Amino acid sequence: MLAVLLLAVGGGALTWKLNHDAQVAAQVAAAEEAAQREAERLAAEKAAQQQRDNAERASRARSVSEIESSVEQMASKHIDNGMFDGPVIEVTCSPGNGGSTDNLTETTTVFECFVATEDNGDGTMSGYKYHATMNWTTGSFTYGFGAP
């Protein structure tokens, strides 16, 4: 009788232990699955943010081309009005004062523009300085003659 009692108690303890271990294993598996889903969500979110950032950088590059075109039109009018001799050979605008079109936290960028009107024949150009300020938030810019 004692053997049956010991066998019953031992069997119950073993059953409890096996059930407990199965529950713990299920909890661990669920936690690992949740962690994997969170990692995948974060990776997708990061990839989406990178796509948005790349699109913004491309948009900013197009805006620099628009600024250069507007500065070229202004310089051509200045030449037509006799302000200085031309023609406009090329216009280049670059962020000044440590600015950058890649830094997406900047809401404005000041550009220093150079309007080349004479090829010096030695690989250099002579010309005039213009400036522009781009407001990335509104997508609008101002520009004018002279250094910023």
Written overview of the protein:
- Helices cover 53% and strands 24% of the residues.
- With 148 residues, the chain is α+β, with helices and mostly antiparallel strands.
- The protein has one domain.
- It has a four-stranded antiparallel beta sheet with strand order 1-2-3-4, covered by helices on one side.
- A hairpin with a 5-residue loop joins strand 2 and strand 3.
- It starts with a helix and ends with a strand.
Considering the chains and any ligands shown, give keywords for the structure:
148 residues; alpha+beta; four-stranded antiparallel beta sheet
When the domains are counted, the total is 1
For the biggest β-sheet, the strand order reads: 1-2-3-4
Order of helices and strands: HEEEE
User: What is the percentage of strand-forming residues?
Assistant: 15-25%
N-to-C span: 102 Å
Largest sheet: 4 strands, antiparallel
The number of strands is 4
Q: Over all CA atoms, what is the radius of gyration?
A: 34 Å
User: Pairing-aware structural class of the strands and helices?
Assistant: alpha+beta
Shape: rod-shaped
| Tally of alpha and pi helices | 1
The residue-averaged pLDDT reads 91
> Approximately how much helix is present in the residues?
40-55%
